[in-house]
Every structure is written in structure tokens, then in C-alpha cells.
Amino acid sequence: MNYPIPGHRNLLIAVSAAAVSIACLWVASHAAHGWWMLVAAVVFSYTNNTLFSLHHEAAHRVFHPNPRVNDVAGVLLAGFFPTIFSIQRISHLGHHRRNRTDEELYDYYLPHQSWLLKTYWIYCLLTGFYWAIIPVAALLYVIWPWAFQSKWFQDGPARWWGFRPFVCDIAQAPIARVWLEGVVSLLLQIALFVVFDLSFVGWLACYWAFGLNWSSVQYSDHAGSPRDVIEGAWNLRFWPVARWLFLNYNFHLAHHREPSVPWIYLPKLVRSTDANHSFWSIYLRLWLGARKAPIGPGPSPLP
């Protein structure tokens, strides 16, 4: 079946969401009262997730049918996260290969793993620190791109945080291209501060709210799902407004089955036999900490 890429629609949504996100950053930075900062941060947490969802489309090369437009948009959208487009693409495609394997199993702990450490990782995810690691890693790449090729970094911090497979994948990427994309993201953030006279407090309020919102979804759509690389995801029930702003990101099982299908078609790919969990039922269970992994070997990563 043919699934045309809605390139013009995606561009319009990207420009609109970026405009609202920038307005929220400005309001949060210049608000006379804390309530306005709070409102701006909450709105930003959703519109910046719209930009992330479009960035996710670009990572799968379904943001725009023109490959050059797709990748340029991906680089710019990455700057709003902020992250580096190539790093996000490599990491996300790695996620599709390793999903629910022993290398990527955040909600369960294996016999040789610490329940306390895995629960700590879950709480980092739920409280926004999982998001914060990504901009820090992007900045590290700009400052010291060879760190990702370092055995010390791979076997030390990356292993301890559970990101070693991703770091090893990123280490194979051409440094010049990835570094240049990182510079673009850094310059975009600097431009936002200079042009719109942002305050660090207002910026942090918006981005931490975004980090909380983004992180809440990132493993709720996998936690407790079957240990299968493709079938190990959920199609979650979202509030209608959230579903629209996240661009159908909640239909995650449909996406894992057909990762090259644009977001507008995902509802049609949901099967009548698929589980129909609400987002809240999975999300709230994560706060109870890591669970013991089911007995038996997990799936092997896809080639």
C-alpha cells in the first residue's frame, strides 16, 4: 500500500509549532508573575513535543519526500530539543533493532542486574533527567567528539547509564558531519537567547516541563510489553488533544511494525486484536520501580 509523505503539512505544522514554542520561551522569560511562566512552560511542553514528533519523522525520512529538505528540517528540528540530528537518527534506528532485548530493557531487571540501579534509571526517566542527558551528550560531542570513541567513555559512563550500545553506534558515524550538526543546534539555541532576550530561568522552566512530558511517553509505550523486537510496544490511549499534539506518537506498536509509514496513517494500522491500554495505567506503574524480567532468554537484536 502507498503512503504518501505529507511534506507540505509537516512543514506548516513545524513552522506553527516552532512559533508557539518560541513565544512560550519569551513569555516564560519575561513573565511578571510565576503563573504566566507556569502556563508558558506547560504549553511549551506540548508544542515542543510536536517538534520532536516531526524530528522523529525526519529520522525515518518521512518528514518530506525531498531527501535534502527532510534532512535540513531534521537538523533544525533537532536544535529545538536540543540534540544532534545524526545522533538522534542513529540512536532511534538502534532502538528499533534492540527494542526489548537485554541491551534495551529499562522496566525490567535481569538476574545479574541491580533492582536499585534499574529503578534509579526509571526515576531519572520519569523526572526529566533522561531528557537532560541528551542535550549534555550533544554538547559533549561538540566540545569533544572523540569521547564517543573512547573505551573509557563507552565502558564507563555510557555502560553505567545503560547507553553503551547507542554510544558505540554513534562512534561509527563520520565526526565532521555530526559535529557540524551539533554546532547548528548550539547556534540555534544561542540565537534564541540573543534575539528573544531569554532568561535562563524561563528557558529552564520550559525545557524541564518539556523533558517531563517527553520522558513520560518514551518508555510508557514499551513498559511491560512482550519481549519482542517488533511487537514489544503499545498503542496507548491518549487524550484527543495530546494525541494530536504528539502526532499519533501513541500508536507506537503500529509504528514499530511499519516504521516507514508517516504519522497520519498510523491509526489505520492499529489491529482490532491489539491491547488497548491507557497511557496512565502504564505510566503510573513505572513509579513502582523495576520489575523482575520474565524467565527465559530475550530476543536477539535485529541485524
UniProtKB/TrEMBL annotation:
The keyword Membrane applies. Residues 34-271 form the Fatty acid desaturase domain. Signal peptide: none annotated. InterPro entries: FA_desaturase_dom (IPR005804). Keywords: Membrane, Transmembrane, Transmembrane helix. The chain crosses the membrane at residues 12-28, 35-52, 72-90, 120-144, 186-210. It holds the Pfam family FA_desaturase. This is Fatty acid desaturase domain-containing protein. The lineage of its organism: Bacteria, Pseudomonadati, Pseudomonadota, Betaproteobacteria, Burkholderiales.
